[in-house]
Amino acid sequence: MDISSHAFSKFDKHLSIFKDVPVRFLEVGSYRGVSAQYLLDNFLTHPESHLDIIEPCHQPSPYSVGDNNKTLIDNLQAYPNVNIITKKSRYMGALEEDTYDFVYLDGSHKNPFVLEDCISAFHVLKIGGLCGIDDHSHYFIEVIQNVNIFTLLYQSYIDIVAVESLDHTPGSIIQLWFRKTKRPLDY
Which domains does the chain have, with CATH numbers? Predict the structure, then answer.
């Protein structure tokens, strides 16, 4: 079982509305592409659906075995509706606003990047779009701190859909899901 596969039950729960519908997804932090494959096989099933992935690929991971970039590209080469962007997550700021139906954040777990990723994800989401943030747990205190700051700052523009444990055991990894409800007035 891949480290990202723990999220699949939450994907099933929150993303089933997108199956067989033309949608755009963005994944930030794909590692080897296992979660991307799951999204493609189970939700991005309409011929016009598309997945963009932002993954720097060159940064070492504590879970690395071999060449991450090669593995990511090898795992996704059979999918014509994928665009792998080999840049850091701050590249999200260069993407068109109000573009994505779903954004999955599993990138940096450090200050200030988590907050920057949350804010950028908000801007690229369509109104009504969903964002899932992985690793919102005491194991990653900077993720919790930054996500809490984001939800406080953007509370008038988002609804928290769920804060869920991935395996229902004490201390397990938690995901926070929010829906963009509106844009700031001066946006």
Answer: 3-180 (3.40.50.150)
